[in-house]
Amino acid sequence: MIISHRHKFVLLTPWKTASSTTHARLQALNESPYSGFFHFNPFLNRVVHRHITYAEFATLPESRLGYKVAAFVRNPYDRAYSGFLQLQRDIKDQPSLEFPADWIKTLVMKQLVENQTKLFEARYDFDLWIELLEEYEVSEVGRNTSLPLYPANYWTHYNAIQAVNFVGKVEEFEADFAAFCRFVDIDFPERINENVSVQFAEGGRYRYEAQMSASTLSKINELFKSDFDLFGYTQI
C-alpha cells in the first residue's frame, strides 16, 4: 500500500499486479507509516504486508482522510501463474531476510513450509498445483499471509460494491499508470520496472494461457468468477 499525504492518494497493491513496479516508481511519494514487509499491524491485530485488502484498509485511520483510492488488477490466469512462480522465489529468498520479531519469522516460515509442501505434492507443475489448490486458500484472508492469491476485487470492492475511485489493469499498464498519475495529479515518474521477467504485455491475449491445461483454465474460471465478472476479463 502506498500512501501520499502530500498528494492525498492511496494506492492499494494486490499481489502480483505490478506492485513492485508501482512501489519503485512512486517510492519518493510514499509516506505510508506501515512496513511493506511482514509486520504486526496494531489496528488489524495480525501480521500483514503491503498487500492488505480494501476491507483491511477500511479499518486504518488513513481510510478516513478522504483521499483518492486506487488499485491495479490483473486477469486471473496470469495472476495465478505469476503467483505460482512468486511462491518459489519467496521460499528461496525470505528465510534469509530480517524480520521485525522472531515470532513473526516463525509464523512466516511455517507458512512457507505449507506452500512448499503443496509445490512438492504438485511436483512443481502448475496444473497439478492448481488442482490441489483449495477454495478456502483463495477465499479466506489471513489464513496464510504468504499466499495472498485472493480475488483481485478484494482490493477494489467492499461488500460487492466498488470502493476505490480508480481501477487500472496490468494488461494496459503503461496507459493506465499514466491515467492514474493524471487522476491523482502527479508528474509521471521515471519508468522503472521491478520483479518482472519480461516487459508487461500491452493488451491482447493472456500471457500464460499456453502454460495451462483445459481443466486448469476451468478451475481458475470457477475460483475467480467474481474477477471475470467485475473487471470484464474474458474467460477461456
Attribute tags:
alpha/beta, two-stranded antiparallel sheet
Structural class: alpha/beta
Portion of residues in beta strands equals 5-15%
Q: How far apart, in Å, are the first and last alpha carbons?
A: 31 Å
Provide the residue-averaged pLDDT: 94
Question: Strand order of the main beta sheet, please?
Answer: 1-2-5-8
Tally of strands: 8
Please bin the fraction of helical residues: 25-40%
Assembly annotation: single chain
**Topology as H/E string?**
EEHEEHEHHHHEEEHHH
Number of helices: 9
Largest sheet: 4 strands, mixed
Low-pLDDT segments: 197-204
- Shape estimate: globular
Computed CA radius of gyration, to the nearest angstrom: 17 Å
Fold and architecture overview:
A hairpin with a 4-residue loop joins β1 (2-4) and β2. This protein has 236 residues and is α/β, with parallel strands linked by helices. The strands form 3 sheets. It has a 4-stranded mixed beta sheet, covered by helices on one side. It has helices at residues 19-25, 54-57, 76-93, 102-121, 126-132, 135-139, 173-183, 214-223, 225-231; strands at residues 2-4, 9-12, 39-41, 46-48, 68-73, 157-158, 161-162, 166-169. The protein has a domain at 2-75 and 150-204. This is Sulfotransferase family protein.
Q: What's a concise summary of this model?
A:
The protein has 236 residues and is an alpha/beta fold. It contains nine helices and eight strands.
